[in-house]
């Protein structure tokens, strides 16, 4: 399996990150998700799931920052379009990002249960997009947590692809 995200001069385009214009933000944060091309999904896959994690956030926050998690995506798609997190052209269920945790306390499902774009405070951060091909649909509902996704995927992962997305501070 292979995944790709378009980069501009080797970085995530501004419209998906902290430099997004007012039309692409909500509550001061970027909410327009980037497009993802997906190729060579295993033929026996029943669904796809994705995570976007910032491991470079560990020295800043003490844990990897969750920017987007989603599941039960059709294995037949070849692209998740731009802004799918908010506009759901491709159906998926979405989990909570790190703004929903106790540190920030965001309770608004529009921003806490969708894509929360990069906002690196200190240096270029590398955002790890992982897409998982699964042999089943997962028994999750919108608003699930990352640990629930990981538990549900255990024993069902057929293939994994990763794409590292650098974003400027």
Key structural traits:
169 residues, mainly beta, three-stranded antiparallel β-sheet, 10 strands, 12% helix, globular
Describe the structure.
This protein has 169 residues and is mostly beta strands. It is 12% helix and 31% strand. It has four helices and ten strands; from the N terminus they run βββββαββαβαβαβ. The chain has helices spanning 58-61, 84-87, 109-112, 146-153, and strands at 2-4, 25-26, 29-30, 36-39, 47-54, 65-73, 79-80, 93-94, 125-134, 157-167. The strands form three sheets. Strands 8-6-5-9-10 form a five-stranded antiparallel β-sheet, covered by helices on one side. The protein has a three-stranded antiparallel β-sheet with strand order 1-4-7, with no helix packed on it. Strands 2-3 form a two-stranded antiparallel sheet. A hairpin with a 2-residue loop joins β2 and β3 (29-30). It is globular and about 40 Å long. The protein starts with a strand and ends with a strand. The mean pLDDT is 96.
């Amino acid at each position: 399996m292979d995944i790709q995200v378009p980069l501009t001069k080797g970085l995530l385009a501004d419209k998906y990150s902290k430099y997004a214009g007012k039309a692409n933000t909500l509550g001061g944060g970027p909410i327009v998700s980037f497009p993802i091309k997906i190729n060579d999904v295993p033929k026996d896959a029943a669904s796809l799931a994705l995570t976007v994690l910032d491991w470079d956030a560990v020295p800043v926050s003490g844990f990897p920052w969750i920017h987007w998690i989603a599941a039960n995506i059709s294995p037949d798609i070849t692209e998740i379009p731009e802004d799918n997190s908010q506009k759901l052209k491709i159906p998926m269920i979405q989990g909570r990002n790190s703004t929903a945790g106790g540190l920030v306390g965001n309770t608004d499902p529009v921003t806490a249960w969708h894509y929360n774009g990069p906002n690196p405070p200190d240096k270029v951060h590398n955002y790890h997009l992982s897409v998982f091909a699964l042999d089943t649909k997962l028994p999750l509902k919108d608003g699930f947590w990352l640990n629930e996704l990981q538990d549900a995927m255990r024993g069902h992962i057929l293939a994994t692809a990763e794409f590292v997305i650098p974003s400027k501070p």
